[in-house]
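Methods — Computational structure assignment.
A single polypeptide chain was analysed. Its primary sequence is given first, followed by the predicted tertiary structure written as structure tokens.
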Amino acid sequence: MEPQQGRANRLPAEAVVRIMTIFASIGYLAASVLLAKVVPIFAGLFKGLEVELPFATGILVTHFMWISALFFGGAVLLPIVTEFLISATRRSLIISSSAFAASAASVGLVVLVLYLPLFELARKAGQAKESR
């Protein structure tokens, strides 16, 4: 009976791993969709404003489809890795939690990188107003 009791205690931890993996995959898919849908809109805006893009924004606007594909690949590979390749529950939980944090941070980072030229444009407009 003791082995079954040990297995019963482990089930909630496995459920938490699966839930974290699902949330991380959803985060990666959201980042992928964000890149695929929003970046072309901002690229058109930057082209119309004729603003010199910061390095990070230029890289994102130029290579957003590859980055989006990497996020989509992360959403596909993460459940496979945590379910089949890593047998230890604790390691799977650490990997899933880290992936969830990375997916959440990446969405915020993409938004920040897209707004960098607009921040610079607002700063220049403020300086021009003060110099009058």
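Note: The CA atoms of residues 53 and 117 lie 6 Å apart.
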